[in-house]
Amino acid sequence: MKQSTLLALEGFQTVLKALIFIAIFGVAISSRLFSVIRFESIIHEFDPWFNFRATKYLVSHSFYEFLNWFDDRTWYPLGRVTGGTLYPGLMTTSGAIWHILRKIGLPIDIRNICVLFAPAFSGFTAWATYEFTKELKDSSAGLLAAAFMAIAPGYISRSVAGSYDNEAIAITLLMVTFMFWIKAQKTGSILYSMLAALFYFYMVSAWGGYVFITNLIPLHVFILILMGRYQSKLYSAYTTWYAIGTLASMQIPFVGFLPIRSNDHMAALGVFGLIQIVALGDYIKSQVSGERFKVVMFISLGLIISIGISGLFFLTYMGYIAPWTGRFYSLWDTNYAKIHIPIIASVSEHQPPAWPSFFFDNQFLIWLFPAGVFLLFLELKDEHVFVLAYSVLCSYFAGVMIRLMLTLTPIICVTGAIAISKLFDIYLDFSVALSTKSPKDVKSVKLDKEKKETSDLEQEDDDYEAELVVDYEPSSKARWFDITAKAVVSSTFLMYLFLFVYHCTYVTSNFYSSPSVVMPSQNPDGSVALIDDFREAYYWLRMNTAEDAKVAAWWDYGYQIGGMADRTTLVDNNTWNNTHIAIVGKAMSSPEEKAYEILKAHDVDYVLVVFGGALGYSGDDLNKFLWMVRISEGIWPDEVKERNFFTGRGEYRVDADATKTMKDSLMYKLSYHDFPSIYPNGVGHDRTRNQKITNNEVGPLDYFEEVFTSEILLVRIYKLKSPDSLGRDHGEAAKFDRNLQSGVKKRLVKKPELELRV
């Protein structure tokens, strides 16, 4: 009877756990669909547009053709060997899903697969987080961690529907790899080690952030060795993972021989060599005893580590091993990128986060995070050391670069869940408080019980511990005080959980679910207005320009122009060629005549600029302009000087006080062309920079003609005049279709002012 009851209870727990997982999967997916519900099924941001374009190429060509794809529509006139300069994991996974669905009779459009890719994989991320946390504590903590991971804004920010970027699958693979590594480290299982290596290979194929795994796992092993916790199962786990994972990762064309020829990977190689020596020493120690062995061992390890580090520096100096990249140095020195690689510092997601952003992305978990780390530190098992190393490293890196909040969020969810789980283990246990008897003194005694045969019960000969309990009758006042205290603490944290769900839903729906190409705004009366100027401009390019037309724009918009307008661009978001990007920056910061010569030398037909002055959009090109100047100055310091764009008082101005260099620059002229004339008094109000612009500041255009301006002047496109027309009357040559443009201007003047919500 007792056994059947236990089986029934286990079956109920299994069913309940399955239902909880179904709910977690449902919440993880549904919370990421606000962008589709409020807008439409569309690819977001910038990089996802290239990933989508590459995926479309993959499903319409063979995998071999995809790996050898040369894209002549980007980085004109250089082009791009696309197959050898990307991580193909995201595209190949989407392509495989597309082919499988077609095989079973579900011909779903590849765009919808790409849009819903990240929400689908977020459920698997929650499952991996559960398995990872269960290895650290128990299933209850694992379920909490999975639920947190499913809705945490820090992860949702890069995994909403339409956010078809590498991180959409990379965080899933990150947690699966760590899950199998912890299992392998605890058990020494070759199977778990091999699975960790295979998912590491999958991670390498999907995201450049795989270097985090490459260094964190060796760091874990190195710390365990220093703590004197070396075991044979640690040797089996690490050597299997490193050997299989490294050989597999070298099959990715973009990675190649980097695992054995790059400083980013040398820590893993060094620990692999170190653990061989430690294993040899452990074997010798088992054969030879004595204090002298310890001395010899420590001296040998010191010499070997010194020789290894010296050899690394020598090989790096000789050029056999690639040095650390600029992105690595920028993680340790926040000013390094701004001084040496301004193109890295110009990216908004590479900036240090403000302190409120930690709370914004993780809410109350941000203060449970150190509590969970402290609780793990008290136990300090081998697997807990991994969590401590992960927490320390990611806490620092996330404080340097806001993008790395994405890698910090999983460990925050894990440690926060462990802290709450330990608290609930105590404060949700009302069994003692509600009983009529409470333990006064508990003593453990060891009893030997002889085997006895009875007619109704068989007992095995076994030693067991029994508790000798001396009961006492507590006062009802003390009992109710205990119940009240536990109820208050438990209800407080249940309320925290409710507020966490509310916060995550609010942040996700209002801040992380808006596609960059369609921006929500508010009219003064509170009604919703959608700003669709980007797609309007890209559609115009697609329908009104030649198929081989070349478009010059700042690199931010390259992927979108290639994906939506299907036109050739000079630069895009790959940012692999700093000099080529600097050419565009130089053209934008040069006087009109010189800019015309630069652009004509690169066969440019159209120039696209983003101007937010009429709308109050702070992400326009004039606010990015100084980065264009800095990047160009790094290549041509004698021709482009940042200080020439600041006033004598060191101010960056665009009104009457702006410098002559600023007013003569192509960016200034293209942004403010005819802008003052749309206002009745002829004085334009730049709402982004809160400055007044008149026709006296904006000179005429002699080498460019305006061919398109979006409804709210957000996107403006200019065509380079042909050399034959430059000798004519510039005033006549610069005229555009007044029927169209005057209508735009009238609508803009009469249209209620919008308040852009960023």
TrEMBL record:
Which family would the database say this protein is a member of? Belongs to the STT3 family.
Enzyme Commission number: 2.4.99.18
BP terms from Gene Ontology: post-translational protein modification; protein N-linked glycosylation via asparagine
Gene Ontology cellular component list: oligosaccharyltransferase complex
**TM segments?**
15-34, 110-128, 140-156, 168-184, 204-227, 239-260, 266-284, 296-322, 358-378, 385-402, 408-428, 483-502
Q: Which cofactors, if any, are listed as required? A: Mn(2+); Mg(2+)
Q: What does this protein do?
A: Catalytic subunit of the oligosaccharyl transferase (OST) complex that catalyzes the initial transfer of a defined glycan (Glc(3)Man(9)GlcNAc(2) in eukaryotes) from the lipid carrier dolichol-pyrophosphate to an asparagine residue within an Asn-X-Ser/Thr consensus motif in nascent polypeptide chains, the first step in protein N-glycosylation. N-glycosylation occurs cotranslationally and the complex associates with the Sec61 complex at the channel-forming translocon complex that mediates protein translocation across the endoplasmic reticulum (ER).
* Presence of keyword Endoplasmic reticulum: yes
Q: Which GO terms describe its molecular function?
A: dolichyl-diphosphooligosaccharide-protein glycotransferase activity; metal ion binding
Q: Which organism is it from?
A: Kluyveromyces lactis (strain ATCC 8585 / CBS 2359 / DSM 70799 / NBRC 1267 / NRRL Y-1140 / WM37) (Yeast)
Q: Which residues form the STT3/PglB/AglB core domain?
A: 550-600
- Span of domain Oligosaccharyl transferase STT3 N-terminal: 15-414
Which compartments does it reside in? Endoplasmic reticulum membrane
Source superkingdom:
Eukaryota
Q: Name one Pfam family in it.
A: STT3
Q: Which reaction equations make up its catalytic activity? A: a di-trans,poly-cis-dolichyl diphosphooligosaccharide + L-asparaginyl-[protein] = N(4)-(oligosaccharide-(1->4)-N-acetyl-beta-D-glucosaminyl-(1->4)-N-acetyl-beta-D-glucosaminyl)-L-asparaginyl-[protein] + a di-trans,poly-cis-dolichyl diphosphate + H(+)
Protein name according to UniProt? Dolichyl-diphosphooligosaccharide--protein glycosyltransferase subunit STT3
Q: Which UniProt keywords apply?
A: Endoplasmic reticulum, Glycoprotein, Glycosyltransferase, Magnesium, Manganese, Membrane, Metal-binding, Transferase, Transmembrane, Transmembrane helix
Pathway(s) this gene product operates in, as recorded in its UniProt entry: Protein modification; protein glycosylation
